[in-house]
Design a protein that fits this description.
four-stranded antiparallel beta sheet; alpha+beta
């Protein structure tokens, strides 16, 4: 019983860290994967580096976006979910 009371604070800290740090990150990663999967040709997007464009081609792991200066091939993971969602609202 004494050993359990010694480890209780560590268990409590792990539970708090899990619910405030690990779980939200996992949830956000899942949402980003779903966003990447639902991209379609013609969608207006913003990359994580701030480039604005429109999806012109889709590959398995890549996407070709059309910008004002031409076409760029990028990884799907480089598209920002939050910034693209705010662009769609405008």
């Amino acid at each position: 019983m004494e050993q359990l009371s010694q480890f209780a604070p560590f268990l409590l800290m792990f539970v708090v860290i899990y619910f405030f740090m690990i779980r939200p990150q996992q949830k956000k990663a899942k949402q980003e994967k779903e966003f990447e999967a639902t991209l379609k040709v013609g969608d207006k997007i913003i990359t994580k580096s701030g480039l604005h464009g429109r999806v012109s081609e889709l590959g398995d792991a890549t996407v070709v976006i059309e910008t004002m200066s031409g076409k760029l091939k990028m990884e799907r993971s480089s598209i920002s979910m939050e910034m693209s969602a705010s662009l769609a609202k405008k």
